[in-house]
């Protein structure tokens, strides 16, 4: 059989493209040759009764790939993130699915738009605040900005989702920065007035206050720390959760029993990951 020049040229181009795919791999973001292909790894199960809180640090130089790997190492059913830019959370969520086989829904609790924190264009900066990732769908999202954020706008978000097979109201907050005790006290009152309406709730967040700080007294009156040894006392057995050896990050439980907990230092942030395994029943 005789091939004309055009046919021969098409064959050569096709062969060259095939070689390129073999040598450099596919270019699709999820590592697939075609859109709609399966993720690079098989789907994994989360730990159904595990919740986690993490201030992911912004601005910091750690990559979203590394942050996703830190989360995947513990595979919580629910994680509350603070200092979260929407674009970063989108990437973390994609990496969790495509690199680790963990699929999460996401809801955002952004309270400001800030170019310096989240990039974007100066006239259209990225959204900044809290986010919740949940393996189960979330409903009844509420986002509240505190009347006084202190040196930067702050707020809380809340959703209803499934933990340990039961519906639970989950709150996620970030209180005012250090040395703003009076502002945090007012914020904690706003938060407590929302939490008290639920017999069963999980409260995640960076409270920027040590356990015996007076501004947290209203929260302690409603809930307990997932670590049974941690109490609002200067001599309490609370593990530190930051690079400067303070406990600022909490998993508070209301009407829910703790089964286990952990504090996990990471190079990706100046805050540790804090997780709790719970018994909602």
Features:
281 residues, six-stranded mixed beta sheet, alpha+beta, disordered N terminus, 6 helices
Q: If helices are DSSP runs of H or I spanning 4 or more residues, what is the number of helices?
A: 6
Give the structural class. Answer: alpha+beta
Strand content: 25-35%
Radius of gyration: 22 Å
- Return residue spans where pLDDT drops below 50 for at least 5 consecutive residues: 1-38
Strands across the major sheet, in which order? Answer: 3-6-2-1-14-13
| Total number of beta strands | 14
Biggest sheet details: 6 strands, mixed
Helix content: 10-25%
Label the overall shape.
globular
Element-by-element helix/strand order: HEHEHEHEEEEEEHEHEEEE
Average of pLDDT: 88
Span between termini: 75 Å
Give a topology summary.
Blueprint: H1 5-24, E1 47-55, H2 64-72, E2 76-85, H3 86-100, E3 105-113, H4 115-118, E4 120-121, E5 124-125, E6 127-134, E7 139-145, E8 155-163, E9 166-174, H5 181-195, E10 201-206, H6 217-220, E11 224-225, E12 249-254, E13 257-264, E14 273-279
Parallel strand pairs: 1-2, 9-10
Antiparallel strand pairs: 1-14, 2-6, 3-6, 4-5, 7-8, 8-9, 10-12, 11-12, 13-14
Helix pairs in contact: 2-3
Task: Give a brief outline of the structure.
With 281 residues, the protein is α+β, with helices and mostly antiparallel strands.
